[in-house]
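Progress narrative, work stream C.
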Amino acid sequence: MKQLLFSLALLISFACSAGDNPPLGARSMGMAGCGTALHADVWGVQNNQASLAELESMQFGIFYESRFLMSELGMKAFAGGMPTKYGSFGLNVNSFGYSLYGETKAGLAYARKLGERFSMGVQLDYFNTRLGENYGSTSAVGGEIGILAEPVKNLTVGLHLFNPTRARLSGSGDERIPTIMRFGMSYKFSEQVFVIAEAEKDIDYKATWRAGVEYRPLPAFYIRAGAASNPNLVSMGFGVIMKKFRLDVASSFHSILGFSPSLGLQYGF
């Protein structure tokens, strides 16, 4: 039974997120993975590069997710963002898998504000997939494009396109990295409450829908919740600000495979 559950978890992870540029950051994961329409978020290097254009200081973050409480399905990631007078630069490195199968992605991003309420970002990515037992590895180069806009006060719209060139992962056959589009919206009701929702569409699979809410009862404390379809998940999380550090903790729940806890730590200069 354990082997069956592991195989099922592995298939769901590969089909739904592992090789498909999944959303990262424990803040986003606390809201079921919604991150396309977040402002000034260092995890924009994964979720929407345009968000980096709004960073006011240099930031670094680390993230870990134990998918379905299985170490073999662990996701480890690092993100960094640095604003300059010429725009913002970002760096992203993440790794998924275990000894018999692993995926690594590294990306270098650039984002810039093109108006008071409009930002755009691009990213160049390097992908590597490794198979154990002497099967070797294969790699590819791809890219991402992100847009963030505020058409009316307190309403943010985000658009993110991953791998628009349909990069080929292997030199033989037609094994390609997925091409994925995300469209998200967030609305800030007050300094304490905002809601966020997004749709994700892999060109080869049906759409995923996500929605979440963040509540700030205290200046240094956040509570988050969310839900998603395909796969059906619910999530909860919280965040704590400690001077220049922010600690975020989250977990999603799948009705068959169980919990996927995640932890993130960010530092801003």
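Work stream C, second folded protein:
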Amino acid sequence: MKRSWFAYPYSLWMVIFTIAPMIFVVYFALTDTSGALSLSNMAAVGQETYLKILWRSLYLALICTVICLLLGYPAAYFLASKDFNKNQTLFVLILLPMWMNFLLRTYAMMSLMENQGIINTLLKAMGLEPVRMIGTEGAVLVGMVYNFLPFMVLPVHTSLKKMDQRVIEAAEDLGANPAQVFRRVTLPLSMPGVISGVTMVFMPAVTTFAISRLLGSGNFMMFGDLIDKQFLELNNWHFGSSLSLIMMALIIISISLLNKADPKGEGSAI
């Protein structure tokens, strides 16, 4: 039996569930309801209303990515340090949310932040005024950071763990202080992991719809919500496919940047 035969089931799966749906998306995006070739759907994406939703999604996704980087890099740096090799408890705690269903995690955040939730209950018990969190951009942003933070920690941690420690020891032997070692050695060598983490956080953040729907109470429509509405509520597959093409273009650009920054896949967490 040839080894290549083992790839046939995977190739069939890719054709049926990846390539074929993409072909249908392109077809619907470039045709009208009669099936004739048309660019009207693509042109409609440029309307001011839809551009505002796109910019809002990009803005919140960018803030989420920056926060995840600021929180995730120090955590990954600590997890990859020599002093942490014998204690994996914190690493398991970071991975633990990824073992839970995405919607369950979001519902858990709702129970914390809703008007009669745990946080406001504690505030009332301390004699403080309750805070309105659900239905705000802040709640959506907190939910995005909570769900996507592990996707930043893992690739950065992988990149740091793969780093040759002899390079750091050489820099220290040459008289570099810890700040100089980090700035001139550790940070540049960990950039593949950073780029991978940024990509893994930014793309799901900009396309999310469950978080904004549940934690935003529908007050803040994001691009993923817009696509979901076109397909499931309005049954407008042509315009929904045009919006999906925009997301596909962002994904392709993101992957291209990742390949340039990390051509050997050194920052991959998988």
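The chain has a mean pLDDT of 86. No further action is required on this item.
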